[in-house]
């Protein structure tokens, strides 16, 4: 029985924890939102799946500070800006054999994680699963998804494949990637265009796509992502990237969806992940002598909007 | 008796027209808003001055297409994007001796006007007067102001000074400027920072000033204004410009004011003057080989916001 801690059990973390426990693993959901942890421990995790009666799933939950037992696997699912704090808090859970899997959106996370454990035990990836947190202790699931995963250290390939097995056995449709950094950059570039612009301009994806400026804006952002990606050995072709993003403007695709950064900033007045998307590109571009004025300005404007909307 | 047409009789045009007629000139207010023209011709121009009973001022008003008589002086007071259309419409009013005065906000207007009459008859300036259009045929006046004016053609200095006299005799506190292009750029730079950012970020000036990003944003915009101004022989020092703008964040100054671009875009869902502020800097910068990515992006973002908010 694999002992798995979900470090950051919002919507996505709870989904993964629920599915991994259902597959027979020993799972604990860790989260800093006390009311959420308490609701799960009192009533179970409420899982709403379209067309089914809500499930009440008994699954242990805890504040990250309240668990000290070494885990086999830890899956990181915090918001980007909470990652460092979470890693500091869960030090007691990380033993010499503990595998840590990072499925966060955004750029630069492996660098952060490497400060807390050896590369051989770090695995990074992306997921296309979705989930909604409906209230404390309650998630709503719909649609299907997948996971792409790779080892950070070259000699940890077998361990990565074992993790892929673990996730797939729980129905999470994981597969081993030979170029996960490309996938991470590609997803970050989607988020760094659609999420950032929809948040800044207060619109949904279809509305953005209907403006005559959309292509110009996307091109300016993507060109800089591509230039900085190249400095990390990632071949993010602007034309291919645009061809990948443009269809998402179709209202029958994700079009009428307000991206998560819009939800965070405009709807809930919460800090955004901008520093791990456009902000990362601007920061690394500056460090490496690549002009990134567009991503720099978008990052500043989103931070200004945070300053205006988030109550002190 | 000097025959004066106000070409564009919104709040500011009506103020100037009212004051010039009161000083004994023969004034006609031209405007494309039919209800406004009709209200003035039916009830007079209603002039609200703080602490006084409203005045009903009999003053002729007309659609620009309805007047054909050559004028001594035409004062342009349209929105920037209506200037070309107005100049085309009022061709019959412009004789060989007609002096045309441009007091519009924004950059690049002399270039436009030169396509319609000889330089010797063109005079440009700025004004610090304010006025509000409260409804059709109704303006509200408060505070004091001034006008700075200069000839475009070197040999028209005396004509400019005569116009200064004309305005000052009507209480408009005009003075002759020896470097009006500097003043125009300086005012455009204030508008291109405060107006554009407050419109884009949906905040007032004091709120913008309270964010920790304000200085960074202003500096990025002002640096490019300065570089492009230099190509026109205008010495707009970034440090001096910032020192001029920063005090405006003080809530006791203009701080709690929503600038006109915010009113246009966010409150009334109307097109903005961005192409004559940041957009001019981006366009001329590109033509002249000066990098202006910040003003380019701000222009694109404001146009995107227009596309999102203005009903087709």
The CATH topology label of the largest domain in chain A is Rossmann fold
Helices and strands of chain A, in order, run as EHEHEEEEHEHEEEEHEHHHHHHHH
Please report the total strand number of chain A as a whole number.
12
Number of helices, where a helix is a run of at least 4 consecutive DSSP H or I residues of chain A: 13
Question: What's the CATH class of the largest domain in chain A, please?
Answer: Alpha Beta
Helical residue percent band of chain A: 40-55%
* Largest sheet features of chain A: 8 strands, mixed
Summarize the structure in words.
Two copies of one chain form a homodimer. Chain A is of the alpha/beta class and 312 residues long. Chain A is 45% helix and 16% strand. Chain A contains 13 helices and twelve strands. An eight-stranded mixed sheet of chain A has the order 5-2-1-6-7-8-11-12. A four-stranded mixed sheet of chain A has the order 4-3-10-9. The longest helix of chain A has 22 residues. The model of chain A has no long low-confidence stretch (mean pLDDT 96). Chains A and B meet through helix 6, helix 7, helix 8 and helix 13 of A and helix 6, helix 7, helix 8 and helix 13 of B. Chains A, B: Catalyzes the NADPH-dependent reduction of ketopantoate into pantoic acid. Chains A, B: Pathway: Cofactor biosynthesis; (R)-pantothenate biosynthesis; (R)-pantoate from 3-methyl-2-oxobutanoate: step 2/2.
């Amino acid at each position: 029985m694999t002992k798995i801690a979900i470090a950051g059990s919002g919507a996505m973390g709870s989904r993964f924890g629920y599915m991994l426990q259902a597959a027979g693993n020993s799972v604990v959901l860790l989260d800093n939102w006390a009311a959420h942890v308490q609701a799960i421990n009192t009533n179970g995790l409420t899982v709403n799946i379209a067309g089914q009666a809500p499930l009440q799933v008994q699954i242990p939950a805890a504040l990250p500070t309240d668990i000290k037992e070494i885990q086999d696997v830890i899956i990181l699912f915090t918001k980007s800006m909470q990652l460092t704090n979470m890693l500091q808090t869960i030090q007691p859970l990380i033993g010499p054999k503990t595998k840590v899997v990072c499925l966060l959106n955004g750029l630069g996370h492996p660098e952060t994680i490497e400060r807390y454990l050896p590369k051989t035990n770090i695995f990074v990836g992306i997921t296309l699963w979705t989930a909604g947190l409906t209230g404390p202790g309650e998630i709503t699931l719909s649609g299907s998804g997948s996971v792409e995963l790779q080892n950070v250290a070259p000699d940890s390939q077998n361990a990565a494949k074992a993790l892929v097995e673990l996730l797939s056995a729980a129905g999470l449709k994981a597969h081993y990637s030979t170029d996960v950094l490309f996938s991470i950059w590609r997803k970050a570039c989607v988020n760094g265009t659609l999420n950032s612009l929809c948040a800044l301009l207060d619109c949904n994806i279809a509305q953005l796509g209907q403006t005559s400026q959309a292509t110009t804006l996307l091109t300016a952002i993507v060109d800089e992502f591509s230039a900085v990606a190249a400095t990390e050995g990632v071949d993010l072709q602007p034309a291919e990237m645009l061809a990948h993003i443009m269809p998402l403007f179709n209202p029958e695709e994700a079009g009428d969806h307000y991206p998560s950064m819009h939800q965070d900033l405009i709807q809930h007045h919460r800090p955004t992940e901008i520093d791990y998307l456009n902000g990362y590109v601007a920061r690394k571009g500056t460090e490496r002598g690549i002009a990134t004025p567009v991503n720099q300005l978008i990052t500043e404007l989103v931070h200004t909007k945070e300053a205006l909307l988030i109550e002190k």
